[in-house]
Design brief:
alpha/beta, Rossmann fold, binds S-adenosylmethionine, 39% helix, 11 helices
Length: 274
């Protein structure tokens, strides 16, 4: 991904699509919340909070906690704030999390649903976060495993003309930057995080639902993700052919009133020293 895309075009699209992204990531959200629910926490930082789903869910779990969601997309922050009116313990702040601080606020829980893979220098960013965190701050975040294990990305990219394929590289900002377990564990150790563990977690990525789940999934994939990125680069004829292939692919993955594709993630946990 290009640095700055979240602040502009990509953030705008995600802001318009937050209902469908929360639906598609629902299985992952449940897993993150199950892990967070059992932790002691009172001050929470949600890194790359997007439209705020995780912050708002954690505020429901512990309404006495103070939660700050941080993001670089003003459009996503607007969406998050519009959903948070009844949540007096949650604020959303515009900031690069790699440089963020808020007075003496020292989080004892740092969390993220897929918001940490876009740092230009992940070691420096996680070092910064470790430095401002409370002693024994717990961290829980999710990120994608290898693209080949994520058919919602790999199989859809395969439907694009070969010249548009852009294989992700380890630690280069983008959705698959943290796919390489050893590289991420090394990075976290260098950044001052202890006891880092990465556990695989797969979930059903709900791309389409309702009476016409294929049409729903088609419009969703043409709005965000690798299909939309690729389709935007095609001329009218190639685009129409690609959309036809995508529709066939989604029809084959329809099951009743759902189109669901496998998504493969890491759930990463770590803590700062006591
Ligand atoms: C894949 S989206 C996930 C959003 C949200 N956590 C969710 O689950 O819906 C990645 C998010 O990270 C944000 N982001 C990217 N780089 C960031 C940075 N350096 N600091 C803060 N937020 C960042 C993006 O703007 C975007 O909202």
């Amino acid at each position: 991904m290009q640095v700055g895309e979240w602040e502009g075009r990509v953030g705008r699209k995600w802001a318009a699509e937050w209902r469908r992204t929360d639906r598609s990531f629902g299985g992952l959200t449940d897993e993150l919340l199950a892990r967070i629910r059992v932790l002691p926490f009172s001050k929470v930082l949600d890194v790359g909070c997007g439209a705020g789903e995780l912050s708002l869910a954690v505020s429901r779990i512990n309404s006495a906690s103070e939660i700050i969601g941080v993001d670089i997309s003003e459009d996503l922050l607007d969406a998050a704030r519009s959903r948070a009116e009844s949540h007096t313990n949650v604020v959303f702040e515009s900031s690069n999390a790699a440089q963020w601080s808020h007075g003496a606020f020292a989080p004892d829980l740092i969390m993220s649903r897929h918001g940490v893979m876009f740092f230009e220098d992940p070691t420096a960013a996680f070092h910064h976060l470790a430095g401002l965190a409370a002693p024994n701050c717990r961290m829980v975040f999710s990120c994608f495993r290898d693209v080949a294990q994520n058919p919602w990305a790999s199989e859809i990219s395969d439907l694009l003309p070969a010249e548009l394929s852009d294989p992700p590289q380890s630690m280069v900002p983008g959705p698959f930057a943290f796919a390489d377990k050893d590289a991420v564990l090394d990075m976290l150790a260098q950044a001052g995080w202890q006891n880092a563990v990465m556990e695989p977690f797969d979930f059903a990525y709900i791309a389409g639902a309702g009476n016409d789940p294929v049409a729903d999934a088609l419009s969703y994939f043409l709005a965000i993700g690798p299909a939309s990125r690729g389709a935007a680069l095609l001329g009218p004829e190639q685009r129409a052919q690609f959309v036809g292939r995508l529709e066939d692919y989604l029809s084959k993955n329809r099951d009743g009133n759902l189109v669901a594709l496998r998504a493969a993630t890491w759930i990463v946990t770590a803590n700062t020293p006591d």
